């Protein structure tokens, strides 16, 4: 393992010459939250947290760290689930949450320029008030846009609109040696050499530090309708999804949910879901400019669902009716988390036609090994979120069963021609599974790219493809 230098009082004094000391947290000044991400399965404190406010500060910090061989960990809101923002080698953590300004709304080019610390919910609210739409919709709305870019976050609307990468026109980044670069631009097309911008997106802070982003916007759809469709079995619910997609009805989102997760969310939120009697549900959303346009899509979808055994079709055609449904869906992760002492998650993505086979496999697996496992996910794009729960299991038994469950699920995803992560990334904790799922040639190329961007390996070491 490579040796890194640690931050000393002398380093602190030097860094304080170009950053306000009040925005530098050193040693015991560092809050416990900086030691882990949302999952909190891995904990390490950085020695210094720098709460930056400008690209220039990031540049000076990176140049200093590179010169003195100090590890640097980028961090936004810390809502990740794979340990990507955990400071494994201590060193400097660069916190972007004060770089939270919306810089420009360009209505001629339909772009929004933002700093990385802008929260997703603030970004979406701002553009929608102006009549525009930023489609990527990850479940964690309190994540920063920089974090979304670093993991290429997807979310519920990916089935129709795509993922974060599809909406990033340009990036300003700081390289490991402090060099500031502009990648991409407001152009719609670009075939000018290797696309370095797209390489940064999804690299989890291992290649460069994002300090600004130019995002593509769309006109805001004027209307939307939600369908909540209960089914007698999960197999029937998920089996209906390929038929909906084949019918070209273009839902904005297609989510699957099981009754047990809905009950968890009801308890967590303290309010009832519109329906909790069926074993499984599809939750669909349609958007468009008129109710007539949307009805032409959802009428056909409703009939497909009924033909496949749906118990009912519950239509929410106003915000008052649909908002509670989506708020409940958005609370699933926190609800599951609050129901157990500890958990870990699998974020596999499989071909859409294989979703049911994977979910049925998970059901059999939890019976076989005797551990609570809960799941929900994006049936429309094949991305499943599976949570393994510790409850009151002794630590050694938990570690053993967790390892078995993880190994079996990733092996099954590989068998179904899926991938390790659909949107949460690899970070620290999913590296072994990535290495098992990819050919060695791919890993060698990834490590070569990392070395080209960061020769001294100071930027978020031990993440993604590295040991």
Summarize this structure briefly.
This protein has 467 residues and is of the alpha+beta class. It is built from 15 helices and 18 strands.
Task: Outline the structure in words.
This protein is α+β, with helices and mostly antiparallel strands. The protein has 4 domains: 9-98, Uridine Diphospho-n-acetylenolpyruvylglucosamine Reductase, domain 2; 102-219, Uridine Diphospho-n-acetylenolpyruvylglucosamine Reductase, domain 3; 223-333, Alpha-Beta Plaits (2-Layer Sandwich); 340-429, Alpha-Beta Plaits (2-Layer Sandwich), CATH 3.30.70. The protein has helices at 9-15, 55-68, 120-129, 145-151, 158-161, 196-200, 234-246, 259-269, 291-307, 319-330, 332-338, 355-369, 395-415, 431-437, 440-453; strands at 24-26, 48-51, 72-75, 92-95, 102-106, 111-114, 132-133, 168-174, 180-184, 209-216, 218-219, 223-231, 253-258, 280-288, 314-316, 343-346, 373-378, 383-389. The protein has a 5-stranded antiparallel sheet with strand order 5-6-10-8-9. The protein has a 4-stranded mixed sheet with strand order 1-2-4-3, with helices on one face. The chain has a 4-stranded antiparallel sheet with strand order 13-14-12-15, sandwiched between helices. A hairpin with a 4-residue loop joins strand 5 (102-106) and strand 6 (111-114). Helix 8 (259-269) packs across helix 11 (332-338) and helix 12 packs antiparallel against helix 13 (395-415). The longest helix has 21 residues, at 395-415. It is globular, with a radius of gyration of 23 Å. The protein starts with 8 loop residues before the first helix and ends in a 14-residue tail after the last helix.
